[in-house]
């Protein structure tokens, strides 16, 4: 910056020539310099005030806009909270095929105590015992008056319980925020969903981990933060599941059965639309694993997936289907059914006399063990095993449940000619109802074995071919005749032309041999048979009903009526329009007068 000199030489010389005082020039220049400096300082101050004013205007405008946005929005509570480095990732929801919630998360609180901070521990113990009846007041008081500095009281609680604890007013009772898994439909689809438990846990957070069922199989996906809480959509239909379980439960009680299971599968996609096992449980309050007794005595046991049984005559359609496929027989082939067939100390006979010979159709319709065994002898042991391998009866079911992967079918290690005959009508080999449903779906869809799945599918599957479409069509016609003319006559449901096969097998004893008064009664069905869409397997464990003066334990008297009622109930829910089969019209001849 250039400054004007206070005593310019030219002006000083001029002033001396005129006799003026040169000091006046210096004072004038100094005054002008000070005024210039003052003007510059004032300009800088005004600029700073302007900038500061603009900053305040912007700040107040931002705050006002934010306040306006918040005032016009819907208030929401935070989804989760945690102190420090707590786990805040939310577990994804589980939905049915139509988007209805099967499992979700709910905000709740844990309750713990710092005894050293409590004022009236005895009173707090008494009040807590009133709020939580499972707690013992005396034990709580001992804990609160002991030397401990921390004590868990409850991992979760309802809002009402939290308020009641809050009203106690003791500063030593503290709450910690957390999430818990909620199953809003209670026990519906309990075995499929499984359940969860708390993993890594602190007073202010808890990690939710799957312990069984879908929750366990897809645990990593459901709690992966990268998925952002994306829901998992299953193939189940909640309304169909609820109706099926209701009818199955009523049928189990009416038939005095120990347990029951049912599997409903889409024969074109492999989707499991509904699957149930009774007795069941509420996954919101999952019981502990049993420490004694048989596994199926526990409600946690899934009879549809974990249970493997000799399912009886439902196997006969596979034997006859294979013989048809190999060209060994046709539906009208006549087979010698004189018996019993004796093999060492074993004998194979029929429940009632069917004559000396019968066609293949009659063997299935009347459920002849002898006739099926004769057909199995034509097939042979090696080819029979190859076909059963194709149907998946020698490996665990590939469905997305960890329980299925741990459940292996059972069969005779020494596959003799006797085994070939007994397996042909469902004895000597144990599989699960889910595996049976998968095989019947192959019979229904034209001969392709699909992978059963609990996940919603966008397109039909293209499975491995196990029989030709022609053989599949003949097998379906035979199954229809079993309902209209044979052992499954109670399975007729008007409008849904059901086809199926009954199976009744005495239960195996744990020590070997069979019970005389305990059976597994099964009905494997396909509907509608003219355009197959679903395969339904219904099984009752140890049913017994007193009809016409006798105790009835066979599937035709026990399981078939239950399955028919299930189809009658769920058919409309599945969107199936009832179909009236055409009847023969009387011949009319028009004549003129």
UniProtKB/TrEMBL annotation:
GO BP terms in the entry: cell wall organization
Region called Disordered, residue ranges: 279-299
Span of domain Penicillin-binding protein dimerisation: 87-223
Transmembrane segments: 47-65
Gene3D superfamilies in the cross-refs: 3.30.450.330, DD-peptidase/beta-lactamase superfamily, Penicillin-binding protein 2a (Domain 2)
Listed InterPro entries: Beta-lactam/transpept (IPR050515), Beta-lactam/transpept-like (IPR012338), PBP_dimer (IPR005311), PBP_dimer_sf (IPR036138), PCN-bd_Tpept (IPR001460)
Protein known as: Penicillin-binding protein 2
């Amino acid at each position: 910056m250039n400054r004007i000199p206070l005593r310019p030489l030219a002006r000083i010389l001029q002033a001396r020539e005129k006799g003026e005082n040169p000091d006046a020039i210096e004072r004038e220049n100094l005054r002008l310099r000070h005024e210039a400096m003052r003007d510059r300082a004032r300009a800088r101050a005004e600029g700073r005030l302007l900038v500061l004013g603009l900053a305040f205007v912007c700040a107040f405008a931002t705050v006002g806009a934010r306040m306006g946005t918040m005032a016009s929005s819907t208030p929401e509570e935070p989804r989760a909270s945690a102190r420090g480095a707590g786990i805040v990732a939310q577990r994804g929801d589980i939905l049915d095929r139509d988007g209805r919630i099967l499992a979700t998360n709910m905000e709740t609180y844990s309750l713990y105590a710092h005894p050293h901070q409590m004022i009236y521990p005895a009173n707090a113990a008494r009040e807590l015992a009133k709020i939580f009846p499972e707690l013992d007041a005396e034990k709580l008081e001992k804990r609160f008056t002991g030397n401990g500095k921390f004590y868990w009281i409850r991992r979760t609680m309802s809002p009402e319980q939290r308020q009641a604890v809050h009203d106690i007013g003791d500063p030593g009772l503290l709450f910690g925020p957390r999430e818990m898994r909620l199953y809003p439909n209670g026990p519906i689809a309990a075995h499929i969903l499984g359940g969860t438990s708390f993993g890594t846990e602190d007073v202010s957070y808890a990690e939710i981990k799957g312990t069984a069922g879908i929750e366990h199989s897809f645990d990593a996906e459901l709690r992966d933060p990268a998925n952002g809480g994306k829901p998992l959509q299953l193939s189940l239909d909640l309304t169909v599941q609820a109706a099926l379980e209701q009818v199955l439960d009523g049928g189990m009680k009416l038939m005095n059965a120990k347990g029951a299971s049912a599997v409903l599968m889409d024969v074109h996609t492999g989707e499991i639309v509904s699957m149930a096992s009774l007795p069941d449980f509420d996954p919101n309050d999952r019981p502990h694993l049993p420490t004694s007794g048989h596994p199926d005595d526990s409600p946690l046991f899934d009879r549809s997936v974990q249970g493997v049984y000799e399912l009886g005559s439902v196997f006969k359609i596979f034997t006859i289907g294979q013989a048809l496929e190999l060209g060994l027989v046709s539906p009208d082939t006549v087979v010698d059914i004189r018996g019993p067939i004796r093999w060492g100390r074993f004998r194979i006979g029929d429940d009632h006399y069917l004559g000396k010979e019968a066609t293949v159709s009659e063997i299935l319709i009347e459920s002849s063990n002898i006739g099926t065994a004769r057909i199995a002898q034509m097939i042979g042991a090696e080819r029979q095993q190859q076909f059963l391998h194709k149907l998946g009866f020698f490996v665990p079911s590939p469905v997305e449940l960890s329980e299925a992967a741990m459940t292996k079918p059972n069969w005779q290690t020494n596959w003799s000619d006797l085994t070939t005959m007994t397996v042909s009508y469902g004895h000597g080999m144990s599989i699960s109802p889910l595996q049976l449903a998968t095989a019947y779906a192959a019979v229904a869809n034209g001969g392709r074995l699909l992978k059963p799945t609990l996940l919603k599918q966008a397109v039909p599957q293209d499975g491995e071919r196990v029989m030709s479409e022609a053989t599949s069509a003949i097998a379906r016609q035979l199954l229809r005749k079993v309902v209209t003319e044979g052992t499954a006559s109670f399975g007729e449901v008007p409008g849904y032309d059901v086809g199926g096969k009954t199976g009744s097998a005495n239960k195996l004893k744990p020590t070997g041999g069979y019970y005389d008064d305990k059976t597994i009664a099964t009905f494997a069905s396909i509907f509608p048979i003219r355009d197959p869409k679903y395969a339904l397997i219904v099984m009752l464990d140890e049913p017994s009903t007193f009809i016409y003066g006798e105790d009835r334990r066979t599937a035709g008297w026990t399981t078939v009526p239950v399955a028919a009622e299930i189809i009658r109930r769920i058919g409309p829910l599945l969107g199936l329009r009832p179909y009236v089969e055409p009847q023969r019209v009387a011949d009319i001849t028009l004549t003129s007068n």
